[in-house]
Description:
Elements lengths: L68 E4 L4 E2 L9 E5 L13 E2 L5 E9 L2 E12 L13 E3 L14 E6 L4 E5 L14 E8 L5 E9 L2
Parallel strand pairs: 1-6, 7-11
Antiparallel strand pairs: 2-4, 3-5, 5-6, 8-9, 8-10, 10-11
Amino acid sequence: MILSDTMNWIKISGVYTASGxxxxxxxxxxxxxxxxxxxxxxxxxxxxxxxxxxxAVYEISDCIAGNNVTICYKDSIQxxxxxxxxxxxxxxxxxxxxxxxxxxxxxxPDTTIxxxxxxxECDVVSTSAVTVTVDQxxxxxxxxxxxxxxxxxxxxxxxxxxANSNLEIFDVAGRxxxxxxxxxxxxxxxxxxxGMYIARLTRPNGELVAQKFCVVRQ
Length: 218
């Protein structure tokens, strides 16, 4: 390549992948005359000279988006790695990311998605991709079914009951008449007079499930 601008500095940059053991860098033309392009002839001589200034060698940071990962629905995961000085970052798409312009954003997608990281350093653009697979089922709790009618001495049997669920029973006036942490289906209607009640179950994730039920005496 011939540089013909005689007034301005021209930036030249490139990427060299080291094989190990290098100790020096040499700048110049390493081709013989027959393999060297020329711009003009000055008499019987072919010559040129360049001023070279501000030579620097930088190690380019690895572009690391991270390993492919599976998360549960509504969970999040941190992507990438620690940032490096003088490097700019851009993640695409930006959906589900808390900040697409940093090296290690937190991703909270609600569907499976592949993110691509573009990293620029010293005019060198590197890319890396990571796929976040969202498991829609791993956080799905079992359906809760609370009976609406209890006859005689029937048990208050709750289907889909999870460990560490808290059961509270209120009368129609809103008074708490029974409470048990980690309810394991051990309450019987013989403990209640005939009438209407409200069963309120607090699931381990904090969700409240309330259901009116009636105790019937024959």
